[in-house]
Amino acid sequence: MSLSVRPQRRVLVAKINRSQSFAGVNSPADRPFRNLSPFTPTVSRKTGSRVSRMFSMSHKSPPPKVPQPNRLDEVYEALKKGLTAYLEVHQLELEKLSTQIRESKRNSRLGFLYDLDKQVKSIERFLRRLEFHASKIDELYEAYCIQRRLRDGAHNMVKAYSTGSPGSREARESLAEASKGYKEYTENMCLLENELESQLGEFHIRMKGLAGFARLCAGDQYEIFMKYGRQRWKLRGRIEVNSKQVWDSEEMVFLPLVTEFLSIKVTELKSLANHVVVGNVSCETKDLFAALPQVVAVDINDLGTLKLSLEVTWNPFDKDDQPSAASTVNKASTVNKRFSTYNQSPPDTPSLREQAFYVSVHQAGLLRRHGQW
Which stretches does the entry tag as region Disordered (predicted)? Predict the structure, then answer.
């Protein structure tokens, strides 16, 4: 599976292909992308790491004037697949942690079991929240489909009354009523489309670097400009010795949109007034609704000799829920590290605090046995 690229006015055919490092996603029909390691250097930071955010308005964009039902159907199907994958990933993680608790309940330390139990409860809360979020999206889409059917019916009535002879008063009144209903249903569809768009979460995009066989040389400077609706991201980079790249910005958060596409423009900065546009492509974003981070490669020019490597992570919730969304699967590595740390010593060897607890319990049992309790 690959991300399709929409050509702009200048017909530029380009594609976005997931890197082979993201295993298990590419279908046999996709064109395999070469491994980026030989000519994609690591991106070194010029300034402190900081995630920038670009939002068109406070939280929501203004509702559209004309609904796009066909496009909304495509985005809804991709969104449902992403939410299903998210649920499956966290359900597998929950089962894995539950198995660890059952296997280590007798011989592990109390602190480790407490951490595992906290992790399980956190994932359970996140799963319930994710299921509620999916049901809310289903309700919005169902209401949208109802308004669409009503709008189609009103459109057919308007068409029927318009083609007939509008001589009678009843026919004119019916035409006015049908036109009023068509306008009302259209406005309702636009509002529901805007509300559904606000439930799409966030795209966290991380700059990985440019890749080009003999295209990149030491001393070259590039400017990358990304446009996604009213959201903008401009960053500049320089190719240094040993194929290292330095960029003034590395991360950006975009709010997903229903009808807009991600536009990427790459310009080579040769001198003060001499800039060469390497490529300008428009990319499809509905395939970015995935549970795990994806490494994608964008063909910037027609020949594909210059590629832009990005890492995209989708968060199904908005910016206020980012900590809760990131505190589920990502904590699994921490738990595994703690598990390996605790297993370095015999698991049935109690700590000093546990020994003191066992001694106090034993003394209380002796006092109770002799009637002195």
Answer: 33-70
